[in-house]
Amino acid sequence: MSIIGQPKEGPELMLKILRTLCAAFAMVIATLIVATLPAKAQLKLDITKGVVEPMPIAITDFLSGDQLGTNISNVIAADLERSGLFAPVDKGAFIEKISNPDASPRFEDWKVINAQALVTGRVTKQGDGRLKAEFRLWDTFAGQQLDGQQFFTSPESWRRVAHIIADAIYEKLTGEKGYFDTRVVFVDESGTKEKRIKRLAIMDQDGANVRYLTNGKDLVLTPRFSPSRQEITYMSFEGGKPQIYLLQLETGQRELVGNFPGMTIAPRFSPDGQKVVMSLLQEDGSANVYTMDLRSRTTTRLTSTSAIDTGASYSPDGSQVVFESDRGGRPQIYKMGADGSNPQRISFGDGSYSTPVWSPRGDLIAFTKQSGGEFSIGVMKTDGSGERILTSGYHDEGPTWAPNGRVLMFFRLPPGSNSPKLSTVDLTGRNLRQIQTPNLASDPAWSPLLE
Amino acid sequence: MRRFEMIARSPVFVALFLSLAIAGCASKKNMPNSAGDLGLAGSAKPGSTQDFTVNVGDRIFFDVDSSVIRADAQQTLAKQAQWLQRYPNYAITVEGHADERGTREYNLALGQRRAAATRNYLASQGVPAARIKTLSYGNERPVAVCDSESCWSQNRRAITVLGGAGS
């Protein structure tokens, strides 16, 4: 928790300048602040430290003639709360009742309940049937408005507007992009524990709006989002020959990725969405990494071993590929050029490492680690140093990054049940949350921020 | 052996063993892989898929993270190879499986490695390799689900599945 320029407000409210801004840019910002807001402070949550005290924030019910205003504010509050960075103040503690969200609130009423930020808003139905949603974000201690925006949308997209507003608040108060206006593709599981019925499904990142993409007839695994299009790649056992497919989310159109002589597994898109990297299982029992260019349909072999090379994931600049291999015995993480050059092992800890996934920021690689009878989700720097385990259990597997690189989703099985559920954990490892899904769920993959 | 006798003589251990045996759930028992286990010997028509499953044994098991054909598995595969050569019209698919104590992608590859090792062994015993397809289910089709080796050891397997017009 930080406020610029008002260190006297409390011992925890320290002067803080955005560390991530370069000096010149910071000067411009400082000049702007001085020019427009003399002697005022800016509410800023510093999330660059390891442990962050959640910021108390009051999110009032948006004014509307019906329940919708309350519903929208509830979705915003739930998003911010789940991030672990914000602590929404209980509405029962509110003193001022907002009747005009355009007017300055009585800041004293919000300071006294320790709400350091305040969100007000209104949702109105337009003549053309659309909704107009407006919000304002206030810094109660500085007594100023920090942000104010309005959005127009169809009534059924009200949750999406709430997520967009939550992202705006998150970005204004942390200085980093949010991740609430995103979706997750995953595998929905039903049926017996010996023979699961698996369906591809997609939902909002908070578990709402679940929609099924396949009917459960064929076993489907490991869906992954395209970084550039409303498209996923996944593995299906369709026709008794397990292969990688592409699925267009808007049209439902499907196509096979390549025509390989054996099973293909573990697909992932390149950062530009133009290639799929995957592993081909060969007749001799080896697995090697291949890419296929989706435009030219040409395939390129990246590894050439008699071992198992799989779980490939590109760096965000597309220049490197991280993957798992048991060429040295147990599965470990390796890194190579995107053309397959210069493979080198980067994980050296006890146990085995698999499912490496490069962070969208480029700074970290998330992985599943199996050691001492436990499965853990962890991160390491891209040279393999600085390993940190974020969560451990009987079986935690398959991390996927939120687009801002601060939160990971994965699936977790309790002992001996074959009953996976999805969870999220942030980079501090302190904010572990289960995602509510209608059935059992595994193999999550986070979308980029929606356009 | 000697150690087992000592343990078996101990009334505490006998009681413990009996209580464990009684408490053990059905899913933790070893899978039947021969006619004797199923009590079906003689009821299967020679040359039928049932004959293969109950009188020969359709599956072999593997050690943790291994695709080495164990001695017990070599015996089963030798019997399979004899039977498959006697009934050459069956199409053969070897399915490789892994236990749940690994990650999904690795287990798919490990299942393929087990299927390939099984196919190679059958080929070495005279079954034409071209007759045998391989397929991996990874850890997607466990036969037993619990949180101990008693289940996992049953899931690390390769199954020889017969198809096509055999008889």
Short description:
Chain B: It is a lipid-anchor. Chain B: Keywords: Cell cycle, Cell division, Cell outer membrane, Lipoprotein, Membrane, Palmitate, Signal. The complex is a heterodimer of chains A (451) and B (167). Chain A is mainly beta and 451 residues long.
Describe this structure in words.
- The complex is a heterodimer of chains A (451) and B (167).
- Chain A has 4 helices and 31 strands.
- In chain A, α2 crosses α4.
- By secondary structure, chain B is an alpha+beta fold.
- Chain B has a 4-stranded mixed β-sheet with strand order 1-4-2-3.
- At the A-B interface, β27 of A face α6 and β3 of B.
- Chain B: One of its GO terms (biological process) is cell division.
Considering the protein shown, what is the CATH homologous superfamily of the domain at 49-163 in chain B? OmpA-like domain
Proportion of residues in β-strands of chain B? 5-15%
**Which structural class do the helices and strands of chain B define?**
alpha+beta
Percent of residues in helices of chain B comes to: 40-55%
Strand order of the largest sheet of chain A: 4-3-5-6-7
How would you classify the helix and strand content of chain A by structural class? mainly beta
User: Widest sheet of chain B: strand order?
Assistant: 1-4-2-3
Low-confidence stretches of chain B: 1-30
- Multimerization status: heterodimer
Main beta sheet of chain A: strand number and arrangement? 5 strands, mixed
Output the helix-strand order of chain B: HHHHEHEHEHE
Counting DSSP H or I runs of 4 or more residues, the number of helices of chain A is 4
Tally of DSSP helical segments of chain B: 7
Rounded to the nearest angstrom, the radius of gyration of chain B is 18 Å
Q: What is the CATH topology assignment of the domain at 49-163 in chain B? A: 60s Ribosomal Protein L30, Chain: A
Shape of chain A, please?
globular
**Strand percent estimate of chain A:** 35-45%
- CATH top level class name of the domain at 49-163 in chain B: Alpha Beta
Pfam families (chain B): OmpA
InterPro entries (chain B): Bact_OuterMem_StrucFunc, OMP_bac, OmpA-like, OMPA-like_CS, OmpA-like_sf, Pal, Pal_lipo_C
Signal peptide (chain B): 1-23
Subunit structure (chain B): The Tol-Pal system is composed of five core proteins: the inner membrane proteins TolA, TolQ and TolR, the periplasmic protein TolB and the outer membrane protein Pal. They form a network linking the inner and outer membranes and the peptidoglycan layer.
